[in-house]
């Protein structure tokens, strides 16, 4: 099921528009796991809030983003590229809407950056954002893919994310 980010109505996988409010639905269902800490092997670290079944390792093709201030990791999967940004209109709908994490206040552009799966590596691309993208503190040139490693820190404007994945 896909949840409409505007009215929270549940729609079937594959639907493009919400039948309740007409808003465009995300192109991919973004799953949320139960913690913001991962071990070096990509396993979710123990937490008193987690059931045993939540301690599964990430699978190939999954990207976990630990967003600053969030209690849970966001898991991206199911497509070769994910656009990160903030919703601003029906015409601009990123795959991962960062509005719930204070994206506007932290200088995240509507279409800020992309994460691209390329064979066994993950590439980060700044999409010409206003406030820039940094990888481990170093600014990225716009539209120039750069390889990221599991555990790297990504900054979109002033919003910090930590990326974890299994190649």
Description of the molecule:
With 167 residues, the protein is mainly beta. Helices cover 0% and strands 32% of the residues. The chain contains no helices and 14 strands. Residues 28-55 have low confidence and may be disordered. It has two domains: 1-27; 33-165, Tumour Suppressor Smad4. The radius of gyration is 16 Å and the shape is globular. It has a seven-stranded antiparallel beta sheet with strand order 3-5-4-14-13-10-11, with no helix packed on it.
Instruction: Give the biggest beta sheet.
Output: 7 strands, antiparallel
Which CATH class of the largest domain is shown? Mainly Beta
Low-confidence stretches: 28-55
Mean pLDDT: 80
- The backbone outline, from C-alpha atoms, is globular
How many domains in all? Answer: 2
Keywords:
167 residues; mainly beta; Tumour Suppressor Smad4; seven-stranded antiparallel β-sheet; five-stranded mixed β-sheet; 32% strand; globular
Helix and strand arrangement:
Blueprint: E1 2-3, E2 10-11, E3 31-32, E4 63-67, E5 73-76, E6 81-85, E7 96-97, E8 113-118, E9 121-126, E10 133-135, E11 138-139, E12 146-148, E13 153-156, E14 159-165
